[in-house]
Design brief:
2 copies of one chain form a homodimer. Chain A has 13 helices and 11 strands. By secondary structure, chain A is α/β, with parallel strands linked by helices. The longest helix of chain A has 19 residues.
């Protein structure tokens, strides 16, 4: 089991990467523990991995984006208080990003912060969201409007959990894995290109664990000294400026990580047009990385330029007049601009549409 | 205007202490500002201090303990979003501890933390709660069950606000001022003894500002290296272990800081009985500090031993079997025990009752 140590202003924490589920046994020795488990994960493992759990200590939580809000947080408070939760209790939550958001927000606010162990079960959560201290909740019509900075005390991840993921969810996670490898510099990017066939074939757990570990290491390097996301951590939004808009225009039919791949193709088109990326690198990334991993493609109407523009103007991170775009440039350096206008967006979006039509 | 700089793991911040209200003018230059003002403070100052404020930028918030919950936080979210709040907005909140809790929790969770300026208007908030990063909300029947660690970016305080406080609220604040001076060592404790007549007469703003500044400095020294309250910061609960119980048995008829004074008398009785405090010091504190500042006294039934015991067992900070008590000892050192049993509680409570009956 390898361990990544993460420094956080709130508290330092550790990510334990394991090829087996053995770590679950040790949880049973934790006093005042309480499990919150995604109902999908529960259904898959209730008679095997979780058969030994005392049902009194488990809340099985039905998970969907519509439930990522304060009402569900209150369900968690109620379940914990019904078992006389004290401030020295430990919550162990098992699931994907939505479980992380709901239980993380609950853990951060109950007694101003209780002990929390998170076991990410999706590739997206394992390779990306589990570190970074962020929790988010939807509020009324506002997506991710509220949240907190609060890391788990410990994260335990095992790629075996991803075996039961649907292709749609697995390749959503793969989008962030690709993004982080591209952001990690040329060596890592080329390593990804050679491992991508194994990763997309879903048959090499050792390659997957290694890709997860490297993804987390890259994310960490961008979070260093910017935990609260006021500077370079923002570059992790590579692929997200346009990607979030595609999620929105597709009404979330395009999974998050897949939308990020579309967003990276878009950013590369702009980088190429601005002379920041060579045609060679552009083509290499397009055909060896991005298009092969794009399994859920947006339709023409989901890429309507006016709607994309409107969605990008809503970007929470935007504080000025122009649109924000983060690009990978030749030499694998990141670059952020805040001056993208409608004409540039329209032209790049046209090229994106014809790329997707041809591919 | 003197300034206290506070180091915080979340972000460093400053407390500006001022004899005048001039700082309010400068707020008008802050872009994307929004005011949240306690309705009581608003009524008192709407035609004077606040006459120039754009009503579109003000939420007047009716304040009561029953409203210190997530529903009121949502009222704040709604008011902010109705004015298209962006993540670079600044919330300026003016009021006492409840306003601090509601607006601080709102500011900490909206966009995972927006800019926040706090102007404490009560003595309790000025001399104690404004620093320390804590926000708390009630949840269902649980008092202060949920909350966050989130300091304001800036705190501006002016003791003039306390002129309009009712005696009941002023002397509640005085309880914490006394506690912090006693915890600051012998020199500060004796300084308080000589200033107490001026402070209780409420006619010397310079003495008050100085007492506030010293109270904050003592609190800071206990928070140093323990912002998240896992060690020595806990000693700030001097007077609170028993005091919280008195608040509870009196159904909050005894104001917080007054209950803390009762709690300090109780703690001193135990310290004397355990040989940790001399009779001389005990009497000096009793007659020169604690009894003169105790203006709202609990009745005999509010000090029912069984009920006090039951309430102390509910203490959120308690993790073991015995009751927790924090005591001042001879030499003005603090000491925490976790072994107080029912017999010791009963006997000390008897002495407390007869002290209050005689005084």
């Amino acid at each position: 089991m390898s361990v990544i140590r993460v420094h956080s202003a709130i508290r330092d924490y550790e990510v334990h990467l394991s090829e087996s589920f053995d770590f679950l046994d040790a949880f049973e020795k934790i006093p005042n523990r309480f499990y919150v488990i995604d109902s999908n994960v529960w259904k898959l493992y209730r008679d095997s991995l979780f058969a030994y759990l005392n049902p009194q200590l488990v809340l099985v939580l039905p998970i969907e984006e519509e439930r990522k809000n304060l009402s569900t947080v209150m369900e968690v408070y109620d379940a914990l208080m019904a078992r006389s939760a004290k401030r020295n209790m430990t919550m162990i939550s098992i699931g994907g990003g939505i479980v992380q958001d709901i239980t993380g927000f609950s853990a951060s606010t109950l007694y101003r912060g209780i002990n929390w162990i998170f076991v990410p079960s999706t590739l997206l959560a394992q390779a990306d969201s589990c570190i970074g201290s962020k929790t988010s909740l939807n509020y009324k019509n506002y997506k991710n409007l509220i949240g907190s900075f609060f890391p788990p005390n410990q994260i335990y991840l095992c790629p075996k959990f991803t075996k039961t993921l649907k292709d749609k969810d697995y390749f959503s996670g793969m989008g962030e894995v690709i993004k982080l490898h591209l952001m990690g510099g040329e060596v890592l990017a080329r390593e990804l290109m050679s491992n991508l066939p194994a990763l997309t074939a879903r048959d090499n757990p050792t390659a997957l664990l290694s890709a997860i570990e490297k993804s987390l290491a890259v994310k960490l390097s961008y979070m260093q000294d910017d935990e609260f996301d006021t500077g370079k951590r923002n570059l992790l939004n590579f692929g997200h400026c346009f990607g979030h808009a595609v999620e929105s225009t597709s009404e979330f039919a395009i999974p998050h990580g897949q939308a990020v791949i579309v967003g990276m193709i878009f950013a590369n088109i702009v980088a190429k047009a601005r002379g920041l990326m060579s045609l060679d690198l552009f083509h290499e990334l397009q055909f060896k990385v991005l298009l092969p991993a794009l399994t859920t493609r947006p339709t023409q109407s989901q890429l309507n330029t006016e709607q994309i523009m409107a969605a990008m103007q809503m970007d929470k991170k935007r504080t000025g007049e122009g649109l924000v775009l983060i690009m990978l440039t030749e030499g694998f350096e990141m670059c952020k601009v805040e001056d993208m206008g409608f004409a540039e967006l329209t032209s790049a979006n046209q090229e994106l549409l014809s790329t997707l039509a041809k591919a």
